[in-house]
Every structure is written in structure tokens, then in C-alpha cells.
Amino acid sequence: MSDTITLAAEARDRVGKGASRALRRDGRVPAVIYGQKKEPTAIHLEEKALVKALMTGHFMNSVIMVDGQRTLAKDVAFHPVTDRPTHVDFLRIAAHETVTVPVPVVIVDEELSPGVKKGAVLSLVATELELTVDAADIPSEIVVSVKGKDVGDTIHIGDVRVPKGAKLVIEDPEFTVATIVAPSAMLAEAQEQAAEEAALAEAASAEAAAEAAAEEEGEDKGE
User: Fold this and answer.
1) Is 81 helix (H, G, I), strand (E, B) or coil?
2) For residues 152 and 131, what is the distance between their CA atoms, to the nearest angstrom?
3) 100-182 has the same fold as 5-93
4) With contact defined as beta carbons under 8 Å apart, do 100 and 135 qualify?
5) pLDDT tens for each residue of the chain, 223 residues long
6) For the chain, the helix, strand and coil percentages under 3-state DSSP, each to the nearest 5
7) Which stretches does the entry tag as region Disordered (predicted)?
8) How many alpha carbons fall within 13 Å on the CB side of residue 47?
């Protein structure tokens, strides 16, 4: 289960672009808490503390206590040049409210995959999957095993196991989560082998045709 993150916050007396720019110059990040049919609360956070929380890797799927309120982060805006956080939206939630959150996908058992052992490339198509789950039981990650998977195999969402009580938002069992793909060297070798086999087959076919023609010519002469 994801750890609860706690962030200290202060109320914003003023809102608007000018006020927000002033806060950012002081190392603060504007934010808002909304939801549960209550009035939105305008706050600001310490940028350093926010960045530290973002660096945990599970900021978007953790319960975050902000200004004494239980929340989920719904959106984080970043500066297009500096990549610094510029605004955060938090959604108020109850202790056992059913929520939908993105959860990171983690691949395990690579050493037990014949395909990976052969040098194939493990491609993670879905880096995260959305889960509907009790807010008190949000997992920190979704573990996907590639044990026994060979070159060309695909791991579908139907192969993914989630914690009890949780449900994957994507219902299509054929949705691709990861693939085991032959690298270019292996593909080139396979293509070369296929070309050789095709050439041999063609040569054998031509030889058989020539022998058949010779036999037919011999029979004609015999007549």
C-alpha cells in the first residue's frame, strides 16, 4: 500500500496570476483543494517539500494530507522551460472513499523469462494502469511477472493480478501491457535464415522440375 504523504500548507489571501507569480518567486507553489461539495480552498506549498514528494514516484497514487485534509493529487502543472511545479490540484476524499488512481507498473521475474535470456527486449507499453480502489488500500505498484515468457510473447491486461477489492479501469482483456520483442540483430539473423531457407527451397523446386522435365523427355524419346 502507498505511504501517506503529508505536506504543510498555508492559505492564500489573494488569487490571480500576479499573486501566483509572487508566491513562486518566494519558493512557494499555488494550489487548490476542492471536492466533497465544499468550497475550494486556495493554498500554497513549499516548493522544496513538494518536489521531494514528487520524487517519491508515487505522488499521484498516494493519500496526501494537506492542511489537515485527506486528498489525492489530481493534476500538477509544470513550467515548460524550467520544469518546476507551478500549480497543484488536490481532491478531498474520505478515509474509505472509492477512488480511481494511476498506479505504476513494475515488471518482475525477468531472469525467469526465456526471451529475455536470449537477449530479447522487454518493452513496457503501459507504464501505469488506472485502478478503482478503496482510498485506504491504494497499492504503490502493480507487479507484472514475465516468468516463462519467450520472444514474441505479449503480456495482456488479462494477465495482470490486482489487490483484492481493486478493479482495473480498462476492461479489455487483450489490452497490451508489455511485449518481449526480438532486437534488430535477432531479427536480421531470422530474416537471413528465412532468406536462405527460401533460396534452398527454390533451388530444390527448380531441381525437381528439371528432373521431371528430363524424365518426361526420356519417356518421349522412348516412344
Assistant:
1) coil
2) 28
3) no
4) no
5) 778 999 999 998 877 888 898 999 999 999 999 999 999 999 999 999 999 999 988 899 999 999 889 999 999 999 999 999 999 999 999 999 999 999 999 999 999 999 999 888 899 999 999 999 999 999 999 999 999 999 989 999 999 989 888 999 999 999 999 999 887 645 555 566 777 777 777 777 766 666 666 666 655 555 5
6) 30, 35, 30
7) 198-223
8) 17
pTM: predicted TM-score of the whole model, two decimal places? 0.74
Break the chain into its structural domains and give their ranges.
5-93, 100-182
Cell 524419346 belongs to: 221
Closest CA to 105 of 75, 72, 146, 150: 146
Largest CA distance in the chain: 112
Q: Are 99 and 132 in contact (CB under 8 A)?
A: yes
* The three three-digit cell numbers of residue 31, written as one number: 494550489
The answer to whether residues 96 and 138 touch, using CB atoms and an 8 Å cutoff, is no
What is the CATH topology of the domain spanning 100-182?
Answer: RNA Polymerase Alpha Subunit; Chain A, domain 2 (2.170.120)
Q: Which fold has domain 5-93?
A: Ribosomal Protein L25; Chain P (2.40.240)
CA distances from 138 to 35, 47, 115, 141, 181 (A): 19, 25, 32, 9, 32
Reading the block at residue 143, the C-alpha cell is 507487479
DSSP three-state, residue 150? coil
